[in-house]
Amino acid sequence: MNQDQLKLAVAQAALDYIAPKLAANSVLGIGTGSTANFFIDGLAALKSQFKSAVASSEASAKRLRGHGILVQDLNDTNGLDLYIDGADETNANLELIKGGGAALTREKIVAAAAKEFVCIADESKQVETLGQFPLPVEVIPMAREYVARELSRLGGTPIYREGVITDNGGLILDVEGLSITAPCELERQINQITGVITNGLFALRPADILLLGTASGVKTLKASD
Ligand SMILES: O=C[C@H](O)[C@H](O)[C@H](O)COP(=O)(O)O
């Protein structure tokens, strides 16, 4: 199976996982990226079985609406039942790096508001220690160089993702060369830097369940399985 087939398989597994949990008033948090797109396309078939979706990006909102799925503002909901999204890296504790598609801040908000976070990823995303994928950090534009200097002091090499402006008007620094052995601590530490909007570590709020696409089928993993 190629990577796209693995993404399609985990998207289908996620649809099978959520289907029995759906109710007429369910509001779903929906992520961003190529794996989430497979999920959104499959979700169209279930649209009569839930109320609405909150999207973690303008791109996902557009795709959801294209399938006739009602997209709500998070502020107009009373929290989310489920959040389904991909990741750039995951470790055995289901701590993640996200933000390869620059949607990290809205993703983190949607994850925070959700009762259950279902992560969908192919096996190329599974690592022992987070940090092989450069850690995205969203920053207020005027703070870009200041934040970059502070991130260098933490031992990483921040690279400005030129030409990218997030849905929030922020910029992205991708921090290379980190070996993240204490993800919660680093997540807090980076968020303390003035000018940082948020960083792509999802350790303080990790995934609750990981559907991992492998050559031998989709595995269902919980933290430290
Ligand atoms: O900002 C983007 C998100 O964090 C994505 O969930 C992440 O980059 C994974 O994307 P993909 O499913 O395309 O590998």
UniProtKB/TrEMBL annotation:
The keyword Ligase belongs to this UniProt entry's keyword annotation: no
BP GO annotations: D-ribose metabolic process; pentose-phosphate shunt, non-oxidative branch
Keyword Flavoprotein attached: no
Gene3D superfamilies: 3.30.70.260, 3.40.50.1360
Active site: 107 (proton acceptor)
UniProt cross-references to HAMAP family, sorted A to Z: Rib_5P_isom_A
Stated family: Belongs to the ribose 5-phosphate isomerase family.
Protein's name according to its UniProt entry: Ribose-5-phosphate isomerase A
Taxon lineage: Bacteria, Pseudomonadati, Pseudomonadota, Gammaproteobacteria, Cellvibrionales
Annotated gene: rpiA
